[in-house]
Amino acid sequence: MRPTAALTPLVALVLASTALTACGGGSGSDPDTVKVSFKQSTDNSVKVMDTYLADIRQQFEKAHPGKKVELVPIKAPDSEYYTKLQQMLRSPKTAPDLVYEDTFLINSDITSGYLKPLDPYLAKWPDWDRFIDTAKAAAKGEDGKTYGVPDGTDTRGLWFNKDIFAKAGLPADWQPRTWDDVLTAARTIKKKVPDVIPLNVYTGKPVGEAATMQTFEMLLYGTNDGRTDPLYDKNAKKWIAGGQGFEDALAFVETVYEEKLGPDVSDALDPNVMTRVRGEWLPQGKLAIALDGSWLPQDWLPGSGHEWPEWSKTLGLAAMPTQNGQAPGKVSMSGGWTWSIPAKAGNPDLAFEFIKTMQTRANAQKWYVANSGIAVREDVAEDPAYVDAQPGINFFTDLVATTHYRPAYPAYPKVSTAVQEAMEGVTTGDTSVEEATSAYTDALKDATDDQVVER
Amino acid sequence: MTATAPRPRLAKTPEDTHPARGPRLPVRLLPLTPAVVLLLLFLAGPIAYCVYIAFTDLQLTGQARASFVGFDNFTRAFGDEAFLNAVWLTLVFTVVSSLIGQNTLGLALAALMQRASKPVRTLTGGIVVTAWVLPEVVAGFLLYAFFRREGTLNAILDWLHLPSQNWLFTLPILAVSFANVWRGTAFSMLVYSAALNEIPQEITEAAEVDGAGGWRRMWHITLPMIRRSIGTNLMLNTLQTLSVFGLIWVMTRGGPGGRSQTLPLFMYEQAFQNSLIGYGTAVALLLLLVGSLFSLVYLRLLRTEV
């Protein structure tokens, strides 16, 4: 028996270690080929990104005779996409020439030395002046250099079903002023239209960053004075421990699930809940209010799978209010994605040429419309053709004025996980709001090497 | 077949005896070299690298350079409630699904099938083995469909007018344990069927003639005689169960609230979701330790001869 006994754990360890050391392969780099990695939708019927990139590739190959573009799609849920990408970026053998980076992780990857500063390229590129300043800041490292070209931004708000609202006796031009107004509407719907889900807010670890950003931060940034950053103190360069605002935001989540105003907890903690909200619950009229992002209509555009072009007749939009209606009265969070060049890319110059092709005014506009994105180029934002192409775009663009950006420093991904754990605890009822808050503070200290202040 | 066919053993020449063996040894080992090199490269190499990074604070992202941190990752694990929770759940999962479930059920099925008619035997064997050959992820989806709120199990309970339960939510660790029993019992059954067939008919008959009932025969004859198979089976089952990942990942992702997060899932979360490769690897080494502890216990069980 002895040989087997020793072998099995060894095999387990080897499997673990091959997984940990990332997959090898990849054939160095060909000087005439740009390898472009991007996140492919996990929903097979959504091909927005694929179609757009195929078009750009054609334009690029036509304009640069002899050059080729190789698209390297990564099909994975968000959190697994980041992991896969980071593994690829570690080695020159696997690093593509161009990657699609979420601004939520970009600083973390910059600190790891995975990305190349783009300043020399940007200095010679006149279009860069067209980008709005907040967007330019999104891809800036702590060293002041820029590591990515943003391809749009997003904002968040409340989507509501006007038909359900009519049945519940609620107005079609609903605009809640406080959190209580939101909960009251949900309670009314629960009572009057019992067969629908009154309100969806993402929660817990299975949905990852969506829980943190679409729900928790949309609440948290509306507490206190509604303007200052409740997560990170920029002047002290320290993270802020869980305080009253944190507890209030958690209590909101707890109320939604305790009073059964949200989906069944097991559905809420299902990793596929995001796909269900967009593909099933909203289009089929099973959900009254959704706190969600501006990009939802990309799933409903013609040719995208769950076609629902008439959504703008059924759904209304309302800004997420601050806790007690304090100024500025509404909250939104913004993020977005950028195109970056890996430090170990073989063809950085050609990769930047590809970025330029993607970001001609016409192509940028095409992309904003295709993915329901919000323009980060002034020239596009002012174009009536862009505004008319997307219902709701004015609403979400207006939110940019009062939006917040996450403190996307290297510790942020771990801070985000700690928030999700706190949320999951109160959602399942395993922990009280106070316990979850103090557990968050402990996790925060651990994740940031004790760079924490009490407020 | 060829001109240089080996000489028959009996025709040994003096050169073939001990003193002359030395110089020929390297030549004999030559064919082994590729295998040894491959083993060193692909087995020992990654393991050594693994052990090394378990003592560093290597991260997947968010860090310019990793540094050596000694035993920090290990002390951190033992102070981490989530880790202790994962150790506890791993033990529950292993004991319930492997030791009790797969092992006992496998033995019972094997014993019953000894006596069953051929069609019954073929049918039962077929069903159980099907569960076993299904890929882990497919089995995970099937059992997810079985246990989920609108799933088959609750439909059956409803039909029997029994209260239905949200199994994956209220009792996730038991649900995944049951899934593992369902999937892994066939292996035990096959091992035990083979062992039971090895028992000479005469011994059982003699015991029967001496008036030993079914239970006594089981306890005093059958079990002692298949003791070695029990040890082997327990060890293989346990090691397989300790490393179950896909099944739990598909059914619950370790949730809700970490209530089915066994060590492999905890390790994955730390290494790939929190990017803490160093810490995750240290946990992997601890999992290895748990596996070896179980193995040691079984080896002792095997050593005492009947």
Query: How much β-strand is present in the residues of chain A?
Result: 5-15%
What does the largest sheet of chain B look like? Answer: none
**CATH topology tier name of the domain at 90-266 in chain B:** MetI-like fold
Give the tally of β-strands of chain B: 0
| DSSP strand count of chain A | 15
Please report the first level of CATH classification, the CATH class of the domain at 90-266 in chain B.
Mainly Alpha
Distance linking N and C termini of chain A: 60 Å
Rg value of chain B:
26 Å
Helix tally of chain B equals 15
What count of domains describes the coordinates of chain A? 2
What's the rounded overall pLDDT mean of chain A? 88
Unreliable stretches covering 5 or more consecutive residues of chain A: 1-27
Strand residues, percent of chain B:
under 5%
Main interface pair?
A-B, 47 and 49 residues
Provide tags for this entry:
heterodimer, A: 455 residues, alpha/beta, D-Maltodextrin-Binding Protein, domain 2, 2 domains, 5-stranded mixed beta sheet, 4-stranded mixed beta sheet, 20 helices, 15 strands, 44% helix, globular, disordered N terminus, B: 306 residues, mainly alpha, MetI-like fold, 15 helices, SBP (chain A), signal (chain A), Bact_solute-bd_prot1 (chain A), Sugar ABC transporter substrate-binding protein (chain A), Amino acid ABC transporter permease (chain B)
Short description:
Chain A has helices spanning 2-20, 48-63, 78-89, 103-111, 119-123, 133-138, 162-167, 179-192, 209-220, 244-258, 265-268, 273-281, 311-314, 348-358, 361-370, 378-381, 384-389, 393-399, 412-428, 433-447, and strands at 33-40, 68-75, 98-102, 149-150, 156-161, 197-200, 232-233, 238-240, 287-293, 315-318, 320-321, 330-334, 337-340, 403-405, 452-453. Chain A is of the alpha/beta class and 455 residues long. In chain A, strand 11 (320-321) and strand 12 (330-334) form a beta hairpin.
